[in-house]
TrEMBL record:
InterPro entries: CoA_activase_DUF2229, Dehydratase_Activator_Redct, FldB/FldC_alpha/beta. Coiled coil: none annotated. PANTHER family: BIFUNCTIONAL PROTEIN [INCLUDES 2-HYDROXYACYL-COA DEHYDRATASE (N-TER) AND ITS ACTIVATOR DOMAIN (C_TERM), BIFUNCTIONAL PROTEIN [INCLUDES 2-HYDROXYACYL-COA DEHYDRATASE (N-TER) AND ITS ACTIVATOR DOMAIN (C_TERM)-RELATED. This is 2-hydroxyglutaryl-CoA dehydratase. Residues 2-200 form the DUF2229 domain.
Length: 295
């Protein structure tokens, strides 16, 4: 069986797990290419207008490989932590895909609750059974996939720079070079080092979020707020750059919360959608770095 893994959304963080699991079951992995103009255009064409840029791009990745696979892995991720949830668009992602893109192969539909290995195993069994009925083989593949994910390194931490900023945002905005127009490379070229939330321990993030009037409902909001405020208040960075998708409801809330907390700390918000121009993007980055140097 050929299993398609679109190169978008949280597959940036969990691709090692998915590829190892399905390959151990004997499937051939079909990955979509890195995001490009064609994938963006196809995603916009095959997705509802109201969706954010990452969701549109994911549609484009699915469309790029749908004719070459027997099963498409659509991450209907509900929870990664107890009492917290993922963006609501993930909840209905399989339905969005199959009702927007024609001639789809079989799609994974079962929701993913990854708050523990035991809960995640429910998705593993139901999805693995689409390929094999051998439960021992599914369990062994799951164990090996967990190891592969533990060994998979993700995150950015630049050393040796005079200026350093926290790069905050949803993982798929930070790690998709097409979406953020090679933001990391641009900042490094301007003499700015970068640190992302993956290098902040969970205890520090959780400690900062206890200052809020209520526990964050969204995992992305918790991570963004906790990491950025921790780094700013402990003077580990010179500024914060938040890369956000236009019309993202979660970002609109967490950005205001961060601004209220860090007060006059240097904070740049970069909004992206399918119409964002690179020249204006570059100008804002350069101006922000100039300000950090003067400060």
């Amino acid at each position: 069986m050929k299993v398609g893994i679109p190169n978008g959304l949280l597959n940036y963080k969990y691709s090692a797990f998915l590829e190892k699991f399905f390959s151990e079951l004997g499937a051939d992995i079909v990955r979509s290419p890195d995001t490009n103009k064609t994938i963006l255009d196809e995603g916009v064409k095959n997705c509802v207008n109201e969706a954010c840029l990452p969701i549109k791009i994911f549609h484009g990745h699915v469309n790029a490989i749908k004719d070459n696979c027997d099963l498409m892995v659509i991450p209907r991720i509900m929870q990664l932590s107890e009492h917290e949830f993922i963006c609501p668009k993930f909840c209905g992602l399989p339905e969005m895909i199959i009702n927007s893109i024609p001639n789809m192969p079989k799609v994974t539909m079962v929701p993913i609750y990854a708050t523990s290995k035991e809960k995640l195993y429910k998705w593993i069994v139901s999805t693995g059974s689409l390929i094999t009925t051998n439960k021992k083989r599914i369990r062994d593949a799951y164990d090996k996939a967990l190891i592969a994910q533990d060994e998979y390194e993700i995150g950015i931490k630049s050393d040796g720079y005079k200026l350093n900023i926290a790069l905050i945002g949803h993982p798929y905005n930070i790690y998709d070079k097409f979406v953020n127009m090679n933001l990391v490379k641009k900042l490094n070229k301007l003499g700015v080092g970068i640190i992302t939330e993956e290098f902040i321990d969970e205890a520090s993030i959780a400690d900062k979020t206890t200052e809020l009037f209520k526990r964050p409902f969204w995992t992305f909001a918790k991570n963004a707020y906790g990491a950025s405020t921790y780094l700013a208040e402990n003077k580990k960075i010179n500024g914060i750059v938040y890369i956000s998708s236009f019309a993202c409801g979660i970002d609109s809330v967490v950005i205001d919360l961060i601004k209220q907390k860090v007060k006059d700390f240097p904070f740049l918000v970069l909004k992206v959608d399918e119409h964002t121009g690179e020249s204006g993007f570059d100008t804002r980055i350069e101006a922000f770095v100039d300000m950090l140097e003067r400060k």
